[in-house]
Amino acid sequence: MQTWEDYVRKVVPYTPGEQPNRPNMIKLNTNENPYPPAPGAARALRELDLDSLRRYPDPAAGVLVEAIGEYYGLPKQQVFVGVGSDDVLAMSFLTFFNSKKPVLFPDITYSFYDVWADLYRIPYECPPLDENFQILTEDYLRDCGGIVIPNPNAPTGVEKPLEELERIIAGNPEVIVIIDEAYIDFGGTSAVSLLPKYENLLVVQTFSKSRSLAGMRIGYAMGNEKLIRYLNDVKYSFNSYTMDVTALAAGVEALKDDTYFRETLQKIINTRERTKRELHRLGFVFADSKSNFIFASHPKCPAKEIFEALKKEDIYVRYFQKPRIDNYLRISIGTDQEMDVLLGFLEDYLK
Fold it and tell me: b/e per residue, 236-272, with b = 16+ CB within 10 A?
């Protein structure tokens, strides 16, 4: 006998990182920026006309689309925005991965990809990273229904060189190749420069990490006009008013203050490089990271044990209980002071 549950679309959902709210905690588990947003973004929120909140926002998010286009030297017809890069990527999966061939993305990567694929009933395959957590170009030069490559990858932080990405894009002209660049600003080389050459390329970025606006939920995609038009068709068939007026105002102002943006990025990069040296000194091993986190393992102490010990001290990092990576911790880069507390605890704990 059938019940209503037989017709429910069942998926295993994505599990986000913990969001504790404890006094004096050190939160290094969700790759948030440890510094405040650009002063102009804060000012835009303070000065927001509250009367605007009773009206629907611009469905085209025109002011933000134009600001992003101007920043990257693209016409507004080549820019799409959404509620964080998760929203943009989900829309991209729904829009572009519509064949019976498998979509390809790495076996160790952002764990939302397989959730979207399952949700939308998209077949997929996950070529394994090599022993150094490198994406192998040859694995993506074959018949498929589309490709998603995060660069730098998460949770490993490893960047794939632009020339190798171009080989993959050029080698798959019949499908859409999405380069997910959530962490590109922390030292990587963006694929945006390849957009004029490849109509099958979609580059996705976010304001959540490098621009300190995770709470505003702003993501965007850049591609040729036809790709963006298809994305908007799906968006308007799903939810016309995705970007609220506060996000539009803060996003535009965040883009204007490039000096503050660059200074903040450099502080995080400097702290990351210092933290790498200290973690090496403490015996940790990890691939080189071009992101705002380090994915590290200690050969003499299990990652889960360190994770639990840190948590007892209100120091939060990310632990994934998954094959191949269950002895690694993903450590977001905080301020110098926060990293000093983390490193001090680890030094004492590992004696």
Answer: eeeeeebbbbbbbbbbbbbbbbeebbeebbeebbebb
For helices 245-256 and 39-46, angle between their N-to-C axes, nearest 10 degrees: 150
* Residue in the block written with tokens 């015996």: 283
118: left (phi over 0), alpha (psi -120 to 50) or beta: alpha
Residue spans of beta strands (DSSP E) within the chain = 26-27, 79-82, 103-104, 124-125, 146-150, 177-180, 201-206, 219-222, 285-286, 293-297, 315-316, 318-319, 329-332
Q: Among 144, 142, 148, 139, which Cα is nearest to 113's?
A: 148
Predicted confidence band of residue 15 (pLDDT cuts 50, 70, 90): confident
The pLDDT value recorded for residue 21 is 84
Reported residue count of the chain is 351
- Beta bridge partners, 293, equal 332
Of residues 318, 317, 269, 265, the one with CA closest to residue 289? 269
More reliable by pLDDT, 297 or 24:
297
Angle between helices 336-349 and 303-312 (to 10 degrees): 120
Q: What span, in angstroms and rounded, lies between the C-alpha atoms of 20 and 16?
A: 12
The pLDDT-based confidence of 17 (bands split at 50, 70, 90) is confident
Both structure tokens of 256: 């204007």
Residue 250 near residue 211 (C-beta atoms within 8 A): no
Pairwise CA distance, residues 340 & 129, whole Å: 32
- Give yes or no for a contact between 140 and 151, defined as CB atoms under 8 angstroms apart: no
Can you read off the two tokens belonging to residue 136?
Answer: 């192998």
The most distant pair of C-alpha atoms in the chain lies apart, rounded to whole Å, by 65
Distance CA 347, CA 13 (A): 36
Residue 342, sorted as left (phi over 0), alpha (psi -120 to 50) or beta, turns out to be alpha
pTM above 0.70, yes or no: yes
Q: Tokens 């993903």 sit at which residue?
A: 330
| Bridge partners (DSSP) listed for residue 294 | 331
The Cα 81–Cα 59 span in angstroms is: 10
